[in-house]
Amino acid sequence: MMKKFKAGVVGIGFIGVAHIEALRRLGNVEVLALTNETDPVQKAAHLNVPHGFADYREMIDTVDLDMIHICTPNHTHYEIATYAMERGIHVLCEKPMTTTVEEAEKLVQLAKEKQLVHAINYHNRFYPITHHLRQMAKEAEFGEIFSIHGGYIQDWLLFDTDFNWRLISSKSGKTRAVADIGSHWLDLIEYMTGLKIVEVFAAFRTFYDTRKRSIHPVETFSQAQQPREAYEDIPIDTEDFASILLKFDNGALGNTTISQMFAGEKNRISVFIGGSKMSAQWDSNDISNLVIGRRDEPNLVLTKDPGLLHPQSAKITGYPGGHVEGFPDAFKQTFKQIYASIEDPTMEKEYATFEDGLRQMILCERIYESAQTNRWVKI
Fold first, then answer.
1. Which of 11, 122, 234, 323 could connect to 71 by a Cys-Cys bridge, CB 3.0–4.6 Å?
2. Which of 72, 237, 222, 230 is nearest to 162 (CA)?
3. Do 159 and 165 touch, CB atoms closer than 8 A?
4. Could you report the per-residue pLDDT of 21-45, keeping only the tens digit for each?
5. How many whole angstroms separate alpha carbon 230 and alpha carbon 307?
6. φ, ψ (nearest 5 deg) of residue 368
7. CA–CA dist 275, 296 (Å, integer)
8. Using CB atoms within 10 A of its CB, is residue 346 exposed (0-12), middle (13-18) or buried (19+)?
9. What's the pLDDT at 2?
10. In whole angstroms, what is the distance from residue 269 CA to residue 272 CA?
């Protein structure tokens, strides 16, 4: 019989609700409490969570919890994670881990000292096809990897009336598009290929120096439009777009395009891996299919099916072939492994840990430095 765990969720925006839904699908995690600055009791009642708090400290001090999920703006992650870990509570944090490398380093050290489970929600690792790609690379099916490219593009900030806390560096950190979605791509590439990025050359663009913020609350990803007089002008100090050249530790070259202003693409991740024996292409808009390219044989399309995937990848596949597994399923599989590692600290951890979160903070900082100095920067 599986051990039962008690969880609390800090921050009930779009992503906090997604965490609650995924946790309930596990069957052995009870969401006992949530924290939200506005209407916490009403939100708890709406989500059928027993306790709602306005202050995460009160939640942690009042409710007996095994794990907290941090789903708040980036600039709050450090203090919340520190408060929880100092009280012996495991932590799962949304990305990016913090707003500075120094904060991330402190959290890594504290997690080690307290011997607590620590995780960052880079859930793209847990799609069946991306997991299968990792197994292919581990078994050297590509031969020598020559090139890696792709990108992460969205359109939810296309208009100057689109606004979110992520746009402001005091809340998001030095980078916005790179830290928010680019770090997903960078983590996924290093995870899948086993290669490390060793040098970067980046160019940033901010297309709107000033945006119009609604004087009324607007949810993330919503398309709500209001009369022009219902906005206030806010200067923007983070990038809308990034183009990044990459060098890897095996000599491979690569590049990625990161944009939150590409009309018509809601949330598209693309990956192209070129090797001496074969290539692979994966696109989140065709999430169940992997295109394997060969020089001297017909190309192959591998469709997600636990009977066709690598045995290790079949273990994180929840449904038979022909049944698409997407964003909520990747959350479920990520959380399943994280909670299992509380019970068995010796198990192999494929999820992103605080060390991985720190790695992404370092990459983001070096990419920012490159964009500011217009030169190659070593990691």
1. 11
2. 222
3. no
4. 999 999 999 999 999 999 999 999 9
5. 55
6. -60, -45
7. 14
8. exposed
9. 75
10. 10
State the CATH architecture for 126-322+353-378. Answer: 2-Layer Sandwich (3.30)
Three-state DSSP class for residue 235: strand
Q: Do domains 5-123 and 126-322+353-378 have the same CATH topology?
A: no
pLDDT digit of tens for each residue in the chain (379 aa)? 679 999 999 999 999 999 999 999 999 999 999 999 999 999 999 999 999 999 999 999 999 999 999 999 999 999 999 999 999 999 999 999 999 999 999 999 999 999 999 999 999 999 999 999 999 999 999 999 999 999 999 999 999 999 999 999 999 999 999 999 999 999 999 999 999 999 999 999 999 999 999 887 666 656 555 566 688 999 999 999 999 999 999 999 999 999 999 999 999 999 999 999 999 999 999 999 999 999 999 999 999 999 999 999 999 999 999 999 999 999 999 999 999 999 999 999 999 999 999 999 999 999 999 999 999 999 9
Pick from 131, 117, 124, 95: which is nearest to 358 by CA?
95
CB atoms within 10 A of CB 194: 13
Quote the pTM value: 0.95
Would you call 280 helix, strand, or coil by DSSP? strand
Instruction: Among 3.90.190.10, 3.40.50.150, 3.40.50.720, 3.90.79.10, name the CATH number for the domain at 5-123.
Output: 3.40.50.720
Tens digit of each residue's pLDDT (9 = 90 or more) over 210-236: 999 988 766 665 655 556 668 899 999
**How far is it between the farthest Cα atoms of the chain?**
64
Kindly list the distances between the CA atom of residue 122 and the CA atoms of 185, 238, 378, in Å, as whole numbers in the listed order.
Answer: 9, 22, 24
In the chain, where are the structural domains located?
A: 5-123, 126-322+353-378
Structure tokens at 185: 């791509």
Q: Is 201 helix (H, G, I), strand (E, B) or coil?
A: strand
d(CA 180, CA 74): 9
C-alpha–C-alpha distance, residues 151 and 188, integer Å: 11
